[in-house]
Automatic annotation (TrEMBL):
This is Amidase domain-containing protein. Residues 1-22 form the signal peptide. Residues 56-445 form the Amidase domain. It comes from the Eukaryota. Keywords: Signal.
Amino acid sequence: MVDLRLQVVAAVMGIIMALATAGGGSKPSGAFEFEEATVNAIQLGFRNGTLTSTALVRFYLDQIARLNPLLRAVIEVNPDALAQAARADAERRRGASGGALHGVPVLLKDNIATRDRLNTTAGSLALLGSVVPRDAGVVARLRAAGAVILGKANPSEWSNFRPVESGWSARGGQTLNPYVLSATPCASSAGPGVAAAANMAAVTLGSETDGSILCPSSANSVVGIKPTVGLTSRSGVIPITPRQDTIGPMCRTVSDAVHVLDAIVGYDKLDAEATGAASKYIPRGGYTQFLRVDGLRGKRIGVPTVLFEGYDQVQLAVYEKHLNTMRKHGAIVVEDLDIATNFTDLYDKETLLMNAEFKLSINAYLSDLLRSPVRSLSDIIAFNNKHSVEERLKDFGQPDLIAAEKTNGIGARERAAIRRLKGISANGLEKLVKEHRLDAIVAPNSDASSVLAVGGYPGIAVPAGYDKGGVPFAICFGGLSGYEPRLIEMAYAFEQATRVRRPPTFKR
């Protein structure tokens, strides 16, 4: 099996190098450059006639066909993607094209429902063949923006609500990191992160409960935006917990991610409470106005000491260099801060609540399906037991699913846990930000994910470097609810000042 995998790696690397060599120096003048294409470049290509949506979709389908046998980032391609692209091209010829995502192929994490010929399974065989009643709220907005739904990306099964390897699902297999194949692709949105990094889609969409956008973005050298909970609708998304679930973009640049964010935010009557509460944060004129190269100027950025512990001196030196870059671009960096609360029980309280909320949420989701092989959490557990080989029960088990099934709703213990997590947020990040008048905190990779998760706060991961083995790492800008405008300003200015990201190396 190992020899076979190495043969596949060698074959794919040979193809990649051959194509790169064949293309070197022979590209016609004015021809569109597909590799690393940004949303802005794509729209320019549409306008000047060097690109069509059909050609763009064909490029990404070819990328998937060549790379996916190795990377396993894509679980399914949309059989209607080329038809959608042709429709976008026809609209453009009639002068009826829309905004930034019109005709742009988007890859969705396989927990985001589409009412089409694609499956929505969270990577599980238990949901294969299920039929959703409607598009997820964010998908409806993408379609309204004219985007092409390219397919579904491989998640960690049940968004890691089984303790599987990061990026593994029974349907999709094991997703690999395109920079260093033996490195982790990290967390449940691994597929979208890898696909974006390896140019298998123009832009991708992931979901996060705690770390599942920020971690794979960090590990795969892409930009990930974890929005304030409720800023984007969760309707039609296979859930874990409504207190923390959020849907956000994972793209190669901050600008691309912001274009996607602009398209998917807003009120949804099927997620009314959360989207209604968060709609007040959406700025008039959208988020692209905050793509400012001087976005660090005057910003107060906090550095909580505890979040940088455990890193080697080489990586810490890179982070210190980045802090100095922020200072040079006008930021006020406040170091050696203490998040003044005790986090020791955060994980236990978060897990206690997730178990109860997952059972309630997944049973509600399953009951809404038009057709499904399973109708309850207990059915999922039974399915896994019956298909133990395919679902690799011997390797991973399903302890989280079983623990959730044993819960009985939101009782006294759960309400106490909610109060405790609210206290952690109020006495932690909220207190720190207000006392020091911060616009953001910064942290390595996804190390602030739990702090942001339990408060429903936003964060943006931006590529920050590569370790001595070539594995990417990131810096995360995090803030309070509704802080997206200032986080975008800082993330974009940092990206433009550092320009760290480079294409994958497929290192063995």
